[in-house]
Amino acid sequence: MLKVIITTATTVSEKELGAFKKALVKKYDQPIELELKTDPQVIGGVKVMVGSDVVDLTIANQLEQLKKQLLKQL
Amino acid sequence: MDIQLPQILFQLVNFSVVLGALIYLLYKPVQKILDERAQKIAESQKEVARIEEEGKKIEALKAKIKREAEKEAAEILENANKAAIKKEEKLIEQAKANLKENLKEAETRWQEEKKQLITNSKSQMVDAVIKVSGLVLGKNLDKKTDKKIIEKRLAEVLQNL
Question: Does the global pTM surpass 0.80?
Answer without folding.
Answer: no
